[in-house]
Write a structure and sequence with these properties.
single chain, 399 residues, Aspartate Aminotransferase, domain 2, 15% strand, globular, binds pyridoxal-5'-phosphate
């Protein structure tokens, strides 16, 4: 008799966005005259940039001509894109080899799929609150997960604790949901911990393009020693508006090795290459051409302009929090503003208050872990007019 993977019984139901949708739908049905403003979901709203669109069009034309048509491409990504990513890192002061870069359909798949490379008996360390994919994918595999508290005592940036022994460590900076970003000294502590404990850091840099403080690291590989112990995931989703277009990449340095129980030296880069060539047939040529255009100097300037638009919204939200005396995190190097729910409320009660009194939708922090219980996330992914209106209404909560 077939047996299913019973670890799935341990994966928590994800009520967060369905519960939000249910409550918003009920409210709009009962109050059809009220204009609801959504600052909840972390999805971009601006269209793809000019150079990306031009490149996509050209690639579509190539696919319609027998002379330039392409079938299966390299599973790891075309050289033109791997080199464009390599150059992008170089411009940011980080040297990566092209064969350490693996193109994919996004950071969500890769942060989940990377678990294939690790033994079931490793202990996984994740922050709380957390982007749920790290927890759910390891639960599906049956790995032991331990949580480290991210809270206002550590500015939502937990640091290594030598009394905790972990093998796989997930870090996300700038962070979803808290918007907090590690500095170089803090990341160095993590890299040192990983080297000392023979651990691997799985570093999610999906929001690196939002970093404006030039002293903050945009890649874990700007930290000395990181190539020995870190894998970095990144994505064009938030960098260049690719959430619906789908393209990301993972950097697996060749220096990450470990000895198997029989003494064989194993290389994580070779294993990921093997995994991808077996289970993945690459990202479409058309999309990779669009992605390469996003990494060009012109494409990155356009991406920056898009990000600046979101940043202006983030500033509108952050300025409102300042005026209302609400303590918040993020908003400067991140599209997210994470704040303590006013009036001592818990996050779902505050969600209901926002929806029923000012018709603004956000995300209750409780959906990201126990430390989010009294926190709330707003995103800058809307237009300026709506953000201004939402914040004008937000101020009325305090009158
Ligand atoms: C922290 C983090 N990592 C990864 C992703 C997924 O990115 P992608 O669209 O590339 O799959 C998201 C998306 O919201 C995210 O917030």
């Amino acid at each position: 008799m077939v047996k299913f993977n019973e670890n799935y019984l341990n994966v928590k139901q994800s009520y967060l966005f369905s519960e939000i949708a249910k409550r918003v739908e009920k409210f709009t049905k009962e109050n059809p005259d009220k204009k609801v403003i959504r600052l909840g979901i972390g999805d971009v709203t601006l269209p793809l940039s000019k150079s990306v669109i031009e490149s996509l069009h050209e690639a579509v034309t190539e696919m319609g001509d027998a002379k330039t048509f392409r079938g299966y491409g390299p599973e790891q990504g075309y050289d033109f894109l791997r080199n464009a990513i390599k150059d992008y890192y170089k411009r940011n002061g980080v040297e990566i080899e092209a064969d350490e870069i693996f193109v994919s359909d996004g950071a969500k798949s890769d942060t989940g799929n990377i678990t294939d490379l690790f033994d079931i008996n490793n202990t996984v360390l994740v922050p709380d609150p957390v982007y749920p994919v790290y927890v759910d994918t390891n639960t599906m595999n049956g790995r032991k997960i331990i949580y480290m508290d991210a809270n206002s005592d550590n500015d939502f940036l937990p640091l290594p604790d030598e009394s905790i022994k972990a093998d796989m460590i997930y870090l996300c900076s700038p962070n979803n949901p808290t918007g907090a970003a590690y500095n170089k000294d803090q990341l160095k502590l993590w890299v040192d911990y990983a080297i000392k404990n023979n651990a691997v850091i799985l570093y999610d840099a999906a929001y690196e393009a939002f970093i404006e403080d030039e002293t903050l690291p945009r890649s874990i590989f700007s930290i000395e020693g990181a190539k020995k112990c870190c894998v970095e995931f990144c994505s064009l989703s938030k960098t260049a508006g690719f959430t619906g277009t789908r393209c990301g990449y993972t950097i697996v340095p060749k220096a990450i090795t470990a000895k198997a129980s029989d003494g064989t030296q194993m290389s994580l880069n070779q294993m990921w290459n093997r995994r991808q060539t077996t289970k993945f047939n690459g990202v479409s040529y058309i999309i990779q051409r669009g992605a390469a255009a996003a990494f060009s100097v012109e494409g990155m300037n356009e991406a920056k302009a898009m990000i600046n638009t979101y940043k202006e919204n983030a500033k509108i939200i952050a300025d409102t929090m300042d005026r209302m005396g609400v303590k918040y995190y993020g908003g400067i190097n991140s599209p997210y503003i994470w704040f303590e729910c006013p009036f001592g409320m818990n996050s779902w009660d505050f969600f209901d208050k926002m929806l029923s009194e000012i018709y603004v939708v956000g995300t209750p922090g409780a959906g990201f872990g126990k430390n989010g219980e009294n926190f709330f996330r707003l995103t800058s992914f809307n237009n300026k007019e709506n953000t201004l209106e939402a914040m004008k209404r937000f101020e009325t909560l305090f009158k």
